[in-house]
C-alpha cells in the first residue's frame, strides 16, 4: 500500500513510523479493551453530544474493522504530533494498514496459520508486566481500570492472539527478505541530501553483570518454607490456593500456579527434568533453577506436550552477598585493563545479562539492531555514569538491580562516543540498512497484497468510501 512503501520518504521518517507502531502496541492495546465505564474512571471524557466510537467500517471476509479501531489510533497519532500538522489522509492510511492486517488474518484462517495458547499467555504476561512497571504496581493497575489483572488479561487475549497470528503471517511473507550492501547504498543515494537526518550524540556502552549470591541461610529458609507448603498439600490443602497466596511467579500465581502446556526443551532443564519424572497429581521435591526454588505438581500429558503448576519462592539476598560479585568483577576489570582478556569475551563468559552478553556486552539499539545509542535516550543510571567517562574507560564494580528485581553488581564500559553529524554510510550503515530492509519488506507485503486482495470479500462503510484501501503502488 502506498502508505507503507518508502518511495522517496527519507529513512528517518521510516523510523518514526516504526516507533509509532511499537508505541501503539504498548499504549493503545490496553485502551481498546477498556469499557466505557472504566474509560470515564480514567478521565477519558467526551464532549457533550459526542457519540461512542462504535460500528463496523470494514469487513474482510469474517474479519471486521471498527470505527473505534481507526479513531483510537488516530487519537494517539494526534497526541504524538504535539500540534504538528498531520497528513490529511491519515485516517485512510490507518484504515489501509488495518485492512492489510485483517486480510492477513483471513488468509491465516484459510491457511491454518495459528499460534499456541502458551505463546499468547507468554505475550500477555510480558505486556502486563510492562503496564505494571509503567504504572507502579499491580494494585495500582487494578485500581486504575477497576478490574483484577486476570480480567484485564481476558479482555486483551483476543487482540493479543490476533496480533501474534498477524506477526506469524507477516514473517512467512517477509522473513526471507534481505538486503545487500549494494542495495543499501542505492537506497541511501535515493534520499535527497537535504532530507538526510541529523543525528545527536551517540554512544556504545557495554556492561558485565554478576548477580549477588544467595547466602546459605536464606537458601535453607526458602527450602524449608516450600517443604512446609508441600506438607500442607499432601495433608489435603489445595495447591492452587497456596500458589495464589505464596508463589512469587507473577505470570502464574494468579492462575493458581498453572503454567499451561509446554513441549520438551521449552522450560529450563532443571524444571523439566523434575516435572517429567512425575505422574499426574504427583508433587516434586523442592527444585532449584535460575529463577529460584520450585514446588511442581504434574497435571497431564497431551501428545508430546505436558502441563504443570508450580509455586516459586525466591530467597532474599543481603548486601553482604553482593561483595563476592564485586570482587569477581574487580578481577575481571583488571584482566581487561591488562589486555589479558577482551571485554567482549569476558562478557560472554561471565555476564548474567543475556540480552547483552552475546553482543560483546554492548547494549543493543532496538530500532536498527546496532550498538550505537542516542545519548539522550539512555537509561538515566547509564547516562549519569558515563557522563564524565572517557572513551575506553571501565567503571569499578557498581551496585545494580536487574529487571526482575535481583541484587547484582556490574561494570560499565564506554566503547565509543560519536559526535552529532548528518547521516552518512560510513557511520550510520546499520540504520540505513534497517531502513532499506524495511522498504524491501514493505514491497514484499505490497506484492502479497496484490496477489491476494481479490481472494476475499471486502465491504467498506460509506464514510470511508474515498479511501482506496485496495490500491498499492505498482
UniProtKB/TrEMBL annotation:
**InterPro entries to which the protein is assigned, alphabetical:** OMP_Chaperone_SurA, PPIase_dom_sf, PPIase_PpiC, PPIase_PpiC_CS, Trigger_fact/SurA_dom_sf
Record-annotated PpiC domain positions: 200-300, 303-413
Q: Name one GO molecular function term.
A: isomerase activity
Respond yes or no to whether keyword Cell membrane is given for this record: no
Task: List the keywords (alphabetical).
Answer: Isomerase, Rotamase, Signal
> Residues annotated as region Disordered?
348-369
- Asked if the keyword Transmembrane belongs to this entry, the reply reads no
Which segments cross the bilayer?
A: none
The identity of this protein, by name, is Peptidylprolyl isomerase
* Organism in which the protein naturally occurs: Hymenobacter saemangeumensis
Q: What is the lineage of its organism?
A: Bacteria, Pseudomonadati, Bacteroidota, Cytophagia, Cytophagales
